[in-house]
Amino acid sequence: MNVLGNYIENFSKMNKIPVAILGATGIVGQRYVKLLSNHPWFEIKEVAASEKSAGKTYGEVMKSRWKLGGNIPKEVSNLVVKECSPTLESKLVFSALDASIAGGIEENFAKEGYIVISNARNHRLDEDVPLLIPEVNPESLALIDVQRRKRGYKGFIITHPNCSTTELCLALKPINDKFRLKKILVTTMQSLSGAGYPGVPSLDIIDNIIPFISLEEEKIEQETLKIFGNLENGKINRANIQVSATCNRVFVSEGHLESVSIETGEKPTIDELIGCLDDFDPLRKLNLPSYAKPIVVMKEEDRPQPRLDRNLGNGMSVAVGRIRNCNVLDYKFLVLGNNTIRGGAGGAILIAELLKVKGYL
Amino acid sequence: MNVLGNYIENFSKMNKIPVAILGATGIVGQRYVKLLSNHPWFEIKEVAASEKSAGKTYGEVMKSRWKLGGNIPKEVSNLVVKECSPTLESKLVFSALDASIAGGIEENFAKEGYIVISNARNHRLDEDVPLLIPEVNPESLALIDVQRRKRGYKGFIITHPNCSTTELCLALKPINDKFRLKKILVTTMQSLSGAGYPGVPSLDIIDNIIPFISLEEEKIEQETLKIFGNLENGKINRANIQVSATCNRVFVSEGHLESVSIETGEKPTIDELIGCLDDFDPLRKLNLPSYAKPIVVMKEEDRPQPRLDRNLGNGMSVAVGRIRNCNVLDYKFLVLGNNTIRGGAGGAILIAELLKVKGYL
Amino acid sequence: MNVLGNYIENFSKMNKIPVAILGATGIVGQRYVKLLSNHPWFEIKEVAASEKSAGKTYGEVMKSRWKLGGNIPKEVSNLVVKECSPTLESKLVFSALDASIAGGIEENFAKEGYIVISNARNHRLDEDVPLLIPEVNPESLALIDVQRRKRGYKGFIITHPNCSTTELCLALKPINDKFRLKKILVTTMQSLSGAGYPGVPSLDIIDNIIPFISLEEEKIEQETLKIFGNLENGKINRANIQVSATCNRVFVSEGHLESVSIETGEKPTIDELIGCLDDFDPLRKLNLPSYAKPIVVMKEEDRPQPRLDRNLGNGMSVAVGRIRNCNVLDYKFLVLGNNTIRGGAGGAILIAELLKVKGYL
Amino acid sequence: MNVLGNYIENFSKMNKIPVAILGATGIVGQRYVKLLSNHPWFEIKEVAASEKSAGKTYGEVMKSRWKLGGNIPKEVSNLVVKECSPTLESKLVFSALDASIAGGIEENFAKEGYIVISNARNHRLDEDVPLLIPEVNPESLALIDVQRRKRGYKGFIITHPNCSTTELCLALKPINDKFRLKKILVTTMQSLSGAGYPGVPSLDIIDNIIPFISLEEEKIEQETLKIFGNLENGKINRANIQVSATCNRVFVSEGHLESVSIETGEKPTIDELIGCLDDFDPLRKLNLPSYAKPIVVMKEEDRPQPRLDRNLGNGMSVAVGRIRNCNVLDYKFLVLGNNTIRGGAGGAILIAELLKVKGYL
User: Fold this and answer.
1) Which listed residue, B97, C299, C312, D154, has the most CB atoms within 10 A of its CB?
2) From residue C47, how far is each of B21, B190, C78, C82, D21 by CA, in Å?
3) Do C208 and D334 touch (CB under 8 A)?
C-alpha cells in the first residue's frame, strides 16, 4: 500500500465509531468479531467477557475456542479482554451475553449512558424496549424516548429478536403489510450453532433429531406479536395474529429452515404473493453497509437448502422457496435464514447502522 | 437340539405358508427378508428381482448390497433369485418393487391367482384396491371382492400406504374415531432409508436438509383421505378432511418424524385426547405375531427422537409426544414411526397376518 | 410363566452374586446397567454416583441422561443411587468412574475388602495391579497377591485397559504368541461414545475430524507393553515392542476402527497369519457367559465397518479385515471393536466372570 | 465501473488465454468453473461433457447438479455445452473426465495439437507423460518433448496426481530434498467429494467409516515413486522409497486428512524437520496467480482439522500438524489438503500457469 493508501486508511480509522462486544468469546460474540473486523463505520475497540477471561488477550483466550475457521482478526486478537462493567470507552455496545446474566449487565450499561444492542432474550418483551428488525419495524425506535424517560437511563437498550423469529418476520413482513396476516403455523428445523458452544452434545444428535428447544416456541409465538404490533402513544399493541410454533434441532451447522403455513385477511393470488416478496427492499436508499435485499425468492423445487443458501446476501438475506397453496391455511412455503448472521450478530449490526443514519450515535 | 426339537421345528416348517418377495434386493426387500426369516406363520420360499440378479443365489447378489447389519439369514442366502413373473410357487407375494415397474407386474400376479401385498404406490389410489393399515381400516378388505369381480382376477392386490402416511394415520385413527378430524397440517422430517438405495447422495445431505421429496406430499394428502374414507356400496368415499403436508429429507438413517397440527369436530380436553391415544389397541385379541400396541404416548418434553424411539414395539409402534395446544388449530404433537418396518415391510406383513385370520389365505 | 418357572427364576436370583456399579450414570456406567441386567451370574444390587445424584432413584436421575435406547431395566430404575464410599453391601464393584476421582475411591474400596474392577486409567500402570484382558494375559491375576501383600488391602483392584488398546491387543495376541511382535504402528478413527457424555460438542465434529484425543496415544503405547509383558517374580517386564499410535475422533456413534501395520520376528505367510487369527479361541472351555470368539476375520474388501460390524459376538468380538502385505512393515489390516462393550463394560464383566471360575469371588 | 475500468477489463479479457473444460459437469469440473471464472490469465471459452448434456446451456444442464453453493458464474452458465471431441477452439484443455473414458479422449486431443492437463488416472504412469506437481517436480516437464517425439503428438498430455498423493508429496517434498525419504506409511481419512457425484450413498456412510477406496492405495503407492523419481535421459527412475497406504472414507464434505509416519536417510532434529517445512516456498518468484505457500505448519495440539483448515491459501496450501517422534519410524504428523482444489482443479490450473511462464502456451 502506498502513502496515500495508508493515509486514507488511517483517516478512515480515526473516524470510525469505537464499539465494544460483551460476551465476545461465545459463538455470537465470534460472529461479531468477524463481521465487524472490516466494517466501514465501526471499529472493535474493546472486547469483554467473564472474569475468567478478563486480563488475557482475546487471542489467548480464544486459542481453542475460535470456531469460525480462518484466523482471528489480528487487531482483535491483541485486545486485552475486559470485564463486562460499564467502564468501557466505547459508547456503543453489542451484547452477546448469555441470558443468565445479560439482563442486569445490560441495564447497568444503559443506566450509565451506553447504547446497548442486545441479542439476549431478557429485555425483548419489556414494554419500553424496541424489539427491532430494521426492515420490519423501524418505527419501534420511538420507544427509546419512552424507555429513557421511564427508567431514567442516560443510554438505552435495543433488543434483536430470537434468530428463528427474525427470519420468519422478515419473510412475512411484506405479506402482512399487503395482505394482513391472520394465522401463522411454523415448524422449524434449527441448526446446531443456534445452541451456542459447547451446545448440543454430538452423541445426542448423531443419526437423530431433537424435537424440543427450550423456550424457543414461546419466543417465536410472543416476539412475532410484538414485532408486528402497532405503536400507539408510546406503547406497542400486540398484533392480532395467531402464531403456533414447533421447534426441532437437526444436524446442520448453520442456517435455520422453517416450514410455514399462513392465512391472510386479504386473499392474494400466488403471483401477487410472490410479487410482494420479490419487491421487498425497504432500506435500499439508506445505503447501510450490512444491508442486502432481505428476501430472495427461489424457484427451484428443492430449495432453499441450508448448506447451499445460508450465505445469500452475505448471510443477511433470507431465502423463501416452494411457495404454494396450503390445503388447510392459504399458502405455505419454506424460509431459510442464517441464524448467526441474519439472526444474530449481523442483524444487530444492521440496527447499529440504522441508529447511525437516524442520528442516534 | 434334540430329536423332539427337530421334529417340532420341521413340523412347524411344513405347516408354514410359503411366501415370495418381489424386489427382494432393495432396502424394503431386505427388511422383508429380515422380518420374515423367523416368522411363525410364513416362510420365505422364493425371492425375485430384476433379470440382472436372477439365476444367482440371493447371498451372491447381496454380497455388497446388504445394508441391515448382521448376516443374511442362511436359508434365504441360499435361495436362487427368480424373475418377477407369475410362475412362482408361493401364492402369497410381497411386492417391494420400484414404482417404475411395480404396476404391471403386480397386475400379472393378481390375474394369475396370486395374493399380492404391495408397498409400491401404483395401485394405492385405484378405486377397487384396498389401501390398508390393519389397525385403521380393516373394513377395506371388502374391496377384494369388488376388485376380483371387476377385473376378473383370480387373486388380488392389496396396497400398503406410503411410510409417512402410515404413521400419520395410525396416530390419528383414534382421534378421528372419537373426535372427527377436520384439518391436518403436517411437516415431516424423513430419514434416508425412505429414499431406498443408493438413494440420497451423501454430498447432497451433509450439513444440510433437502426440503423436497418427489410426490411425497401428494401421497400424504391423497392417501389419508382414502384411508379415512368410508366404504359404501363397495366404494370408498374420500374423507372430508383438509390435509396439507410439507416433506423434508434429513440426515437420519431410519425413522420419520412428523410435526402435526390438527383441528377436530368435537373438542376434547387434552386429557381426553391423550387418553384416546393411550387406549388404542384394536387388534389385541387377534394375536397377530407382528402386532404391537400401535401408539406409545411419550411424556418427556424432548421425545420422540428417531434414534431412541424408532424401534418401539419392534418397530411396529409409532411414538406420539409433546401433545399440546396449538394456537392456530386445536392441538399439535410429534409422531415418529419406523419407515422401513411400520411404514414398509412390517406393515405389509401385518396385512398378511390379518388376511390369514380372516381366512383369505 | 408357571410356578416351576417362577421357582427357578427366584432360586437362580437368590444365588446370583450381588454387584455394585460406581459411576453408574455415565456412558460406560449405563452399558454396565444394560449388560448386567440379565446376567446369569451377577445381579445389580447397588448403583453409586456423585453426591448430586445420591438419594434419588436411578430412574429419576437418568430421566434425560439415558443414552442407550430402549428403557432402563426396571429393577435398576428403582434402585436408590448411593454415594461412592466403601459401605456398600456388594463386595464386587465395577468402577466406571471418571479418572479425575477414580484413583482414591478405588483404593478406599480395595482397602476395605472390595474387589474392584476398573475402567479408569488411574491404576492401569501400577506395578502391582493387573491390566487384564481375559483372553490375552490371564496370568496377570498373579499380581493380586503381590498387591494385597504390598498394600495391605483386604480386597484388590484389577484394571481393564483403554478401549482402543483392548481391541488392538486382542487382535494382536495370537500373532504375538506365534510370530513375536516387534513393531506396531496404528492410526485410530475413534467414535464419539469414547469421549463420554456430554463429550464432543456437535459443532466441533460436524463435517470434521479431530486429530487429537488427550492422552490416548500414550495409553495405547504404554498399556500395550504391559499387556504383552511377561510376568517374572511377581513383576511384569515390559514387552520389547515398538508401538506408535495416532488417534483421531470421527463422526461415528460407537465402534473404534484402527488401521494397523506390524512387523514380526518370525515371518509367517499371509495364510498362516490369517489362520492364527481365525483359530484364536482361548477361553472357549470356561463357558463364561460374556465370552464370544474374540476375533472375526472378514474377507470382504470393504470391511470391517463400524455401523455394520460393531455388534459381532454381542459386541465382544473384534473384527479384523483387509489383511494384506505392507510395503513398510510386514503386514497391515484394519481392526474394529465396540468401545463401550468390548472396550468398556463388557470387557470388565468378562474379567469378573474369569474371577468367578478361578475362585476369586 | 467507469469507462476506464471497462476498457481495462475488456482489454484484459481480450488478452486472456481461452480454455476448455472436459467433463465440466462433474464435481471437479465444477471446481474448474469456479476457480477459472475470475482467473487473470485464463478465460473459460468452452465447456464439454457427455452427449446427453451437449447442446444445452451449461446453466440448464447444471440446474440441480451444481454442488458448490453460490451461483454458477454467468458467462459460463450461458455457454452451450459441447461434446468432448478435438474440434474445440481453445487449445488449452482441462480434463476432469471420468477414468472410464478419459484415456482415449485425451489422446485424441493431444494428437490434434491440444495441450491437455488431466486429473484422470489413465496416463499418470505412462513413461512419457509428466505426473506433475509444480512445486515438487517441475523438471518432469522435460518429458513433453519425449512424449511428442515418441507419439507424434502435435500437442501433449500432462497429468496431475491423485488428490491424496498430491497433498502427501507436497508435504514430503522438502523433507525428501533435505533428508532423503526411505519409508512412508500413511493412513488416510478422505472426504466424500473425492468420490465425485453422486458418489457415496448417504446410507452407506451415516454413522460409519468405509475402510476401502477402490485403487486409491495403489495410486498413492505408485504415483509417489514416480513423482519423487529422478529424470535421467528422458526417463524417470522410480524413487527408492517404501510406501504403504491404507485409505478410508469418512463423513466429511471436503478435505483429506492423512496420518503419516516417515523414515529418512539423514536424521534431522525435530526443529530441523519443522524448519524445512516452514521454509518451503519454491515458486514464490514466478508470481503464479494460484500459487500460495504450499505448506502451513500448525502448532496447535489438535490441528489440522478438515472443516477449519481446508481453505488455507485459498485451498492451495496443505496444513501439516502434530509433528512428533514416531516410536516405529522416525517422525509422524498429520497432513490435510483440499482434495477438489489443491488435489484437483486448483493443482491443474497451477500447472497451466507454470506452462505459461515457461513458454509452453
Assistant:
1) B97
2) 48, 38, 10, 6, 66
3) no
